[in-house]
Design goal:
The protein is of the alpha/beta class and about 140 residues long. It has one domain: Cupredoxins -  blue copper proteins (Immunoglobulin-like, Sandwich), CATH 2.60.40. It is about 25% helix and about 20% strand.
């Protein structure tokens, strides 16, 4: 029985530490889930998708789309709001495209093909600070 207590304590400690660790583990988010990155039928589709996810530093956004029909560009908020396809931060034209979140700013993505952005093929995400990363911010 004496050998059981240290083992039980070790198991409990591992479970607790893994629960805390999961809050800061980077996640891969497939944008639009099974729908992917395409012109949505619902104007609020990507806004709702974004609201249903939590994004932190080191998470990755994966954009799946049909090459030649869509692309994905990271843009400023102003370009996102107006669907301005000039002065892009970064553009990717092959699928799947991956963007790794490297700061806590909001991030904005659009499709620059035709009128796709004006047809709501655009995504804005808000990046959260993980619960245990206050030490990261002080550096």
């Amino acid at each position: 029985m004496a050998n059981l207590k240290p083992s039980l304590f070790l198991i409990i400690a591992m479970v607790v530490s893994s629960m805390e660790f999961n809050h800061s583990v980077a996640t891969e988010h497939v944008v639009g889930d099974s729908f992917g990155w395409a012109v949505p039928q619902n104007a609020g589709f990507y806004a709702m998708w974004s609201l249903n996810h939590t994004f932190i530093i080191d998470d990755t956004l994966i954009f799946n789309f049909t090459d030649g029909f869509h692309n994905v560009a990271e843009v400023t908020k102003e370009a996102y709001d107006t669907c301005n396809t000039q002065n892009l931060i970064l553009i990717q034209t092959t699928s799947p495209t991956r963007f790794t979140i490297n700061n806590v700013d909001n991030h904005y993505y659009i499709c620059t093909v035709g009128l796709h952005c004006k047809s709501f093929l655009k995504l804005a995400i808000r990046v959260s600070v993980p619960n245990n990363s206050s030490a990261m911010l002080s550096h």
